[in-house]
Amino acid sequence: MAETGRIRVAKDKAELVKALTSVDGATGLFQTYADVIVFAAALGAKHNKRVPLGEISKREPSPIPQEQFIVRGYDTVINVIAITETKDIKILSFNEDKNVEKRNHIFEEYANGGLELLQAELHGAVDYTERILLMLSSEKLENQPEEEFDLSRFI
C-alpha cells in the first residue's frame, strides 16, 4: 500500500514523468510532477488501465507529498477515481483506518496505467507536446456523436 501522504511513481516510468515536466529548465508539457501524475491517472481511469507499481522511484521523482495535489485541487480527482473503482462512498471517510492509503493506492495504480499508455503512445516521438495534443484531439473526435446532416436548417 501507499505511504500515507505521498503519491509514488514506478521506477520504470520516472524518466517519462521527468521528460513531461518543465522542471530544471526542461520544456515539458506539464509544470509539476503532480500535474503529470493526475493527467496519467485520468487517462488510466478512462481506459480502465490499473497497473501495480512494482519498484518505486526513490529519486526524481521521489514520492510526491499529497499537499502538492491538494493545493492544486487534485484531491478531488483522487477521490472520484477511488469512488468509481470501489463503488463505495465510504472510501472518503476519515473515520475508517487506511482509507487515505487505499485512495492513494488506487490513484497510483491508475496513474501507472496511464503512464504505460503514454509510454506506448510517445515511443519514438520527438515532440511530446504535439503527440499528446494529437492524442487528445483524436479522443475528442472519437467521442463526438455523429450528427445527420439536416438540410432543414437552411430553409
Helix and strand arrangement:
Blueprint: E1 6-7, H1 14-19, H2 33-46, E2 64-65, H3 66-71, H4 75-86, H5 99-122, H6 128-142
Antiparallel strand pairs: 1-2
Helix pairs in contact: 2-5, 4-5
Description of the structure:
The protein is mostly helical and 155 residues long. It has one domain. 50% of the residues lie in helices and 3% in strands. It is built from 6 helices and 2 strands. The chain has helices spanning 14-19, 33-46, 66-71, 75-86, 99-122, 128-142, and strands spanning 6-7, 64-65. The protein has a two-stranded antiparallel sheet. It is globular and about 65 Å long. The relative contact order is 0.19. It comes from Brasilonema sennae CENA114.
Based on secondary structure, the structural category is mainly alpha
Could you list the spans in which at least 5 consecutive residues all have pLDDT below 50?
none
Distance between the termini: 63 Å
Strand content bin: under 5%
The total of helices stands at 6
How are the strands of the largest sheet arranged? 1-2
Mean pLDDT: 84
Number of domains: 1
User: Which sequence of SSEs, written as H and E, runs from N to C?
Assistant: EHHEHHHH
Radius of gyration: 18 Å
* Percent helix range: 40-55%
The 3D shape can be described as: globular
